[in-house]
Design goal:
Mean pLDDT of chain B: 83
Shape of chain B: globular
Helix content of chain B: 55-70%
Largest interface: A-B, 29 and 23 residues
Structural class of chain A: mainly alpha
Radius of gyration of chain B: 18 Å
Number of strands of chain B: 0
Number of strands of chain A: 6
Number of helices of chain B: 8
Largest sheet of chain B: none
Bound molecules: zinc ion
Order of helices and strands of chain B: HHHHHHHH
Largest sheet of chain A: 6 strands, mixed
Radius of gyration of chain A: 33 Å
Shape of chain A: globular
Strand content of chain A: under 5%
Oligomer: heterodimer
Structural class of chain B: mainly alpha
Number of helices of chain A: 33
Strand content of chain B: under 5%
Chain lengths: ~850, ~220
């Protein structure tokens, strides 16, 4: 997770010696100022360095001043060969307020001045008679419309490269710039400095750079580069002699020899120059062919490890699917024939077979793979686990298929699927199928919004049908309602008036949800195709709408407090209130929102004090909740205490979210709480949705809220600034945890709410937590396994690196988060029943 | 009895389906450069108009409409007015639903509203013809096992099919194929029309297939 930011300008003086980024200790003197990632990557390379931490995004002046302040002194000195400057400010401005920010212009002017200073100093140095210098100005990446980077869109991957030197011919005007590959910079710089090209470089030299040198030198450079590429090709391709580029290289080499002969004979005719041009052209073509065939080979896959991993995942998924009838039965207990299958002969045979297969693969394959590099103990454990799982699966399958062993599971599924069930199943499966298309992955938020909308409409129809149906006769309606409520003594005959108003509230809930979702959807425009469209967050974050943003943030915080506090104890209520106040003052200190009594908002601090103040309250609330939970489980089994403890844990998480979310995202949090409250009070309980249905709905909501926050399946949309809330500098573990938490806040909060909701419904249906946990695990594992199989099949797809692999990272992280949630679930379930889940 | 009803339904559906085809072909002679993609709005209104008119005519001729208590002219006029009001309301409702699904609020509002009109004429007009302006009855028929006659069942099927067709029609929109029919709202209106046509075929077939099992409570 290496994040290099800012534009870097690199200054190299050709003097002979070794490549600019080669190993240390060979006499080349490099000075570096800027992003300290460089220093951490190459700790001993620089003769002198001053790293600036790049991880505090809201600072865009100090990071650059820290580079510039060295400039005057260094430029006067003569004791260095290469000077590398990595400016970070522009990148930070992009992350802060996007490419159209009013801060960009002044920053670019500042950079222009720096460039001018360097250039004039170099020019004056050259008049003293040193060799010509080369000034390289380039950005390490571009910027998307939202100001971030890491994706594959045109403005993110295309950056300018400017080479300035007195060794070049002076150009009259601005020509249309040529397009070069990033890998081409390395051979060009190496040859320009008179150094050997790095062994594994796949680039080809940028020919216009050498236009002013003699033809002999040009051909020598081209020969060096082609020779290096041909060596690389020979080492990496078995059939290298049949490669087009390799053949062209040999042709060019031969003609080059003829040219040299003529040249050394002193021939200066037209023939010589025409042959020279021909050689040049041949070399260029050979370079192009070899470079492209080498680039293609870079994507090699470790198929053995991939298939082994896939088999393991498939086994787990099959196990989950096979135990479905038992897991969703009334007791939610699953008995696995562990002992029987682990002591059987097939198990040992399988272990032996797998081990021998592993040895065979690892000794025969000439390329090393991940699994072969693992220590033997780990491999053995994996083999035992996998074969054990297979035996369990087979014996389970045997039990299922055995005639006469059909349990009475049929009776529960006999009731038939309602429209809602059909929608939930079709939606989940349809989502899995949609993962095969790169467009649907890029626009996955659309899938979830669409499904969620349909779900709300289906719930609306359900409410209509249950409460507003035409009465065919007296008592008909009541019998219909009671037929579904016979399992519980629900308060059906409440006073007529209360039922009437509640009926309308119930009808309004899905509509409210729909409206909320539509508003949130226009808050953050994500995805690829429509990401450039203006959205509410842009509007709110522009400088002249700070008052509106402050008002919105304050209103959201108040709403959050009102919705969360009702089920907390008094202590956590107060802690929550103070914490939310702290959140607002943190945002005011950072400069995102206005304090009503603050007149000058010029002094922007890092807000560390305020953020730590909130962290204390978060920990306090979580601690109170954990204490209540423990007391409810260990000392007295009190379900009310337990549900309060759970709710306190949940409200601690809400407070942490409120702190980490950017102010324009606070309405997302408020709306999610609002929908949760309304749905829990009026829909899920009263319409008798079972645990599985509720779980699937929670999962869908969680997914949609993941995208409402502004996330996408592109790494660039991760808001890394969340990892620095309340920290002075980059500390790895909290930063990673906080970033992951704020990214997955939507799914996490909904999962946590699900635990609260199901355990409060536990007295109605004891197995509901178990059912919820099972459904949650299943809901996550089906898409993950399907996606891994799909990606393996599509590994030569054009978009594999830009679309499919970031999505794979997201899937993996999401699975990790879900595992944590499931562990929490099981812990909550343990106390109630001693049921064993797997 | 049942067979006669099914035969009537088949012929009625055949007439409606052919009216859709005619509405697609006819504008060729009146409108310059007519095509379903290019001049989509013309096609959309021509189809929805013809479907509405043909539906109303057929159901009026067949006499399948809810029993009216009074036969006074005033009652009939108020019924007609209420039907018109319901139609307009259903257009607005469909428009709102489509916007909730993510259609832009202000730009291309005309296209969105046209889609709403098409959906209303495919579904609401038929409801009005069969059930009259009676919302609780609509809710009954449009929920599972609420049908009380063959026509109710066919109404269920065609309505569900056109709505599902429009729903499925939204799927190709995010794909980056850049085809002319991916432009909003063409894929959705085509989907709705195809869904409706499928519904017209499925309804009599399904009823014929299940005619033994279908038992309706007498009114
Ligand atoms: Zn950056
Ligand atoms: Zn960068």
């Amino acid at each position: 997770w290496l994040h290099r930011r800012g534009d870097e300008s690199e200054l190299a003086r050709p003097a002979g010696g070794q490549p600019p980024l080669a190993g240390p200790g060979s006499g080349k003197r490099i000075i570096f100022y800027g992003d300290d990632t460089w220093v951490r990557l190459f700790p001993k390379l620089f003769m002198e360095h001053d790293g600036t931490t790049s991880f505090f995004v809201s600072d865009y002046t100090e990071v650059d001043n820290n580079v510039t302040r060295h400039l005057d002194g260094t430029l006067k000195r003569e004791d260095w060969d290469v000077l590398i400057l990595h400016y970070l400010g522009l990148d930070h401005i992009g992350h802060l307020s996007g490419p159209h920010s009013s801060l960009v212009g002044p920053k670019l002017l500042e950079m222009d001045d720096v460039l001018k200073k360097i250039h004039s100093s170099l020019v004056s140095r050259e008049t003293e008679g040193s060799l010509p210098s080369l000034l390289v100005l380039c950005g390490d990446h571009g910027m998307s419309e939202t100001g971030s980077h890491g994706g594959s869109s045109e403005p993110e991957t295309n950056t300018p490269l400017v080479l300035i030197s007195s060794a070049f011919k002076r150009k009259v005007g601005m020509e249309k710039p040529a397009v070069v590959e990033q890998v081409d910079v390395l051979p060009t710089l190496a040859l320009g400095l008179g150094l050997p090209i790095s062994q594994n470089s796949v680039g080809r030299l940028i020919q216009p750079v050498f236009q002013e040198t003699s033809l002999r030198d040009q051909l020598r450079f081209l020969h060096l580069n082609s020779f290096q590429l041909s060596c690389l090709l020979r080492d990496s391709t078995p059939a290298f002699q049949k490669e087009e580029g390799y053949e062209q290289f040999h042709m060019a080499e031969k003609t080059h020899g003829n040219w040299m002969k003529l040249y050394l004979e002193g021939n200066a005719s037209e023939v010589l120059s025409s042959i020279g041009k021909k050689v040049l052209k041949q070399y260029m073509e050979a370079l192009k062919a070899m470079s492209s065939s080498l680039s293609k080979q870079l994507g090699k896959y470790d198929l053995y490890s991939m298939i082994v991993g896939m088999i393991l995942l498939l086994q787990v998924l099959l196990l989950l699917l096979l135990v479905m009838p038992e897991a969703l039965s009334g007791s939610a207990e699953v008995e696995l024939p562990l002992a029987a299958s682990l002591l059987s002969l097939p198990f040992f045979l399988l272990c032996l077979l797998c081990s021998s297969a592993h040895v065979l693969v690892c000794t025969s394959a000439h390329s090393s793979c991940y699994l072969c590099d693992l220590p033997w103990g780990v491999v053995l454990a994996a083999i035992v686990f996998s074969s054990g799982l297979l035996c369990v699966l087979l014996s389970l399958l045997g039990q299922k298929l055995a005639p006469g062993a059909r349990p009475s599971a049929k009776s529960s599924s006999d009731a038939g699927l309602s429209e809602l069930d059909v929608l939930l199943v079709v939606g989940t499966l349809g989502y899995v199928v949609s993962l095969a298309s790169s467009s649907f992955i890029e626009e996955e938020h659309q899938t979830w919004y669409f499904l969620l909308n349909t779900l709300c409409l289906a719930v609306f129809q359900d409410v209509c049908r249950k409460y507003f149906r035409e009465r065919r006769g007296p008592g008909d309606d009541a019998s219909y309602l009671s037929s579904r409520e016979d399992s519980s003594p629900s308060p059906a005959p409440v006073a007529e008036l209360g039922v009437g108003s509640r009926k309308w509230l119930k009808l309004a809930t899905p509509l409210l949800t729909l409206v909320c979702c539509r508003l949130l959807r226009s808050l953050n425009q994500t995805g690829v195709q429509w990401a450039h469209l203006p959205d509410l967050s842009h509007w709110l974050n522009s400088w002249d709408h700070k008052a509106e943003l402050s008002l919105l943030a304050a209103a959201s915080l108040v709403l959050i407090f009102v919705l969360v506090q009702r089920r907390c104890s008094l202590v956590s209520k107060m802690a929550l209130g103070l914490g939310l106040l702290g959140v607002y003052s943190y945002r005011a200190a950072v400069g995102n929102v206005l304090f009503p009594w603050q007149t000058n908002s010029t002094d922007i601090s890092k807000g560390t004090v305020e953020a730590r103040f909130v962290y204390i309250f978060v920990l306090g609330i979580l601690f109170t909740g954990a204490k209540d939970l423990l007391r409810s489980q260990v000392i007295v089994t009190d379900s009310r205490l337990k549900s309060r403890g759970l709710w306190e844990v949940y409200s601690g998480m809400v407070l942490l979210c409120a702190l980490l979310f950017r102010p324009h995202n606070l309405p997302v949090l408020a709306c999610s709480l609002l929908i949760q409250t309304a749905m829990a009070q009026l829909i899920w309980k009263e319409l008798q949705y079972d645990a599985a249905q509720t779980t699937i709905m929670h999962y869908w909501f969680g997914q949609a809220f993941f995208y409402f926050q502004g996330n996408s399946n592109n790494i660039a949309t991760i808001d890394i600034s969340a990892g620095f809330v309340g920290l002075e500098s980059y500390v790895e573990i909290p930063a990673v945890f906080l970033t992951a938490f704020s990214t997955y806040a939507g799914p996490l909060l909904w999962a946590c709410h699900l635990v609260c909701f199901l355990s409060s419904a536990q007295d109605r249906c004891p197995a509901s937590v178990g059912h919820g946990c099972y459904c949650f695990a299943l809901l996550r594992s089906i898409p993950t396994v399907a996606y891994i199989v799909l990606v393996t099949a599509l590994r030569y797809h054009l978009f594999i690196w830009s679309v499919f692999s970031p999505k794979l990272l997201y899937e993996a992280t999401h699975t990790l988060v879900t595992t944590a949630v499931c562990v929490f679930f099981t812990a909550m379930d343990q106390s109630h029943t001693a049921s064993s889940r797997f | 009895m049942r067979d006669l009803e099914i035969k009537g339904m088949v012929s009625a559906h055949a007439i409606i389906a052919s009216s859709i085809f005619i509405a697609t072909v006819m504008p060729l002679f009146f409108v310059e450069k007519f095509s379903v993609y290019g001049t989509h709005m013309v096609w959309l209104y021509s189809v929805s108009g013809s479907v509405a008119v043909v539906n109303i005519t057929i159901f009026w001729l067949l006499g399948i409409s809810p029993p009216t208590k009074k036969h006074t002219l005033g009652y009939k006029v108020s019924r007609l007015l209420r039907s018109c009001l319901y139609f307009i309301l259903s257009c607005l409702l469909f428009h709102a639903v489509v916007v909730l699904y993510g259609a832009p609020l202000l730009e291309s509002a005309l296209e969105t509203f046209s889609l709403a009109v098409l959906l209303s004429s495919l579904t609401t007009v038929r409801c009005l013809c069969v059930l009259g302006p009676n919302v609780p009855a609509w809710i009954r028929v449009l929920s599972r096992d609420g049908a009380m006659s063959v026509w109710d069942t066919s109404l269920q099927i065609t309505t569900a099919c056109s709505v599902i067709g429009a729903w499925l029609g939204a799927f190709p929109i995010p794909l980056d194929w850049d085809r002319p029919w991916q432009v909003w709202p063409i894929s959705c209106s085509l989907g709705a029309t195809f869904g409706y046509l499928t519904g017209l075929v499925i309804a009599p077939t399904w009823i014929h297939w299940h005619r033994k099992q279908l038992t309706y409570k007498s009114k």
